Amino acid sequence: MAKLENDNEQPIEVVKYEEEYSEESFWSKLGYHALTIGRNLVDLALQLYYAMQDPDIPTWVKTVIMGALGYLILPLDAIPDLIPGAGYTDDLGAIVAAVGIAATYITPEVKAKAGAKLKEWFG
């Protein structure tokens, strides 16, 4: 999903969903659908969100993150989110690809913030 072009390492595929991302939409989607989305996917999405707050993150990595989170926010994507048991599998693929790209910026502090929010939502 979040492939890189060989010549200039600019993200493609997921980037087209960057416009779907907004902080308000992100929190709304996770707030209302966290239990349906599932703890693991929510954890990864939160890690990306908090990593994106790092002022030193390169723009292209931030773009990949915003694209992956935008894809998660979008209810009608390759596999519509409303399909029970399968609706978030494509979203997981996009998020996992973005986590791989942004791994350097997912610090212990980022994981702690995500963990605190998970504990608040899932107990």
Question: What keyword list fits this structure?
Answer:
mainly alpha; 5 helices; disordered N terminus; 59% helix; 123 residues
**Strand runs, count:** 0
Rg: 14 Å
Approximate shape:
globular
> How much strand?
under 5%
Mean pLDDT: 80
Q: What is the structural class?
A: mainly alpha
Helical segment count: 5
What composes the largest sheet? none
Tell me the count of domains.
1
Helix-strand string: HHHHH
Helix content class: 55-70%
Write a concise synopsis of the structure shown.
The chain has 123 residues and is mainly α. It contains 5 helices and no strands.
Verbal overview:
The protein is mainly α and 123 residues long. The protein has one domain. 59% of the residues lie in helices and 0% in strands. The protein is built from 5 helices and no strands. The relative contact order is 0.21.
